[in-house]
C-alpha cells in the first residue's frame, strides 16, 4: 500500500508541476504581450525632435499645391479627382518621401489596387459593413503581395464600397488623381538638396 501511495503522490506531484509550468508560461506570455505596449525612455523624446523649418515650409507648399490643384479641378472644372484618401497621400509624399510607401509604384499602384478591390467587392456584395471590411482587408493583402503598400489605399477601398462606385472610379479619380499627385511631388520634393524623389519607380 505504501508503494502505491508513493506512486500516486509522485504522479500527483508531476501533474501539479506540469500545471504550474503551464500557468507560468501563460503568465509570462501575457506579461510579455503587455510589456510591448510600454514605451521606452527614448519614445518620450521623439515628439520633441528638431523641426527643420525650411523643410516644413517646402512640405507645406507641396501640400497646398497638390491638394489645391486636385480640389480646384474637381470643384470648379467638373473633373472627378477628389477622394479623401488623397489627403493622406499628400502628407506621406511630403513628410516621408524617402519611405517605400511614398514611392510612385506604391502611391499609384496602392491606390489602383485598393480601388479595384473596393469596386469589385461592392459590385459583388453591395456596401454592407462586412463588405467594407472585406474590401479593406483585400486591399491590404493585395498591396502587401504586390509590394505596393500605401496605407491611404485602405481608405480608397473603403470609399469605393461605401460610395457604391463602379469600375470607372479606378481611372478617375484614382489613377489620374494619384498620377497628378506624383507629378507635383516630383517637382516640389527635388527643390530641397536634402531630398531625392523618387527613390525608385518600379
From TrEMBL:
Query: Known InterPro entries for this protein?
Result: HPP, TM_HPP
Q: Which residue spans traverse the membrane? A: 56-74, 81-101, 107-125, 130-149, 169-188
**Pfam families the record matches:** TM_HPP
Please verify whether the record's keywords include Nucleotide-binding.
no
Origin, by domain of life? Bacteria
Which UniProt keyword terms apply here? Membrane, Transmembrane, Transmembrane helix
Taxonomy-wise, where does this protein's organism fall, top ranks first? Bacteria, Bacillati, Bacillota, Clostridia, Eubacteriales
Which residue range or ranges hold the HPP transmembrane region domain?
A: 50-198
What is the name attached to this protein's record? HPP family protein
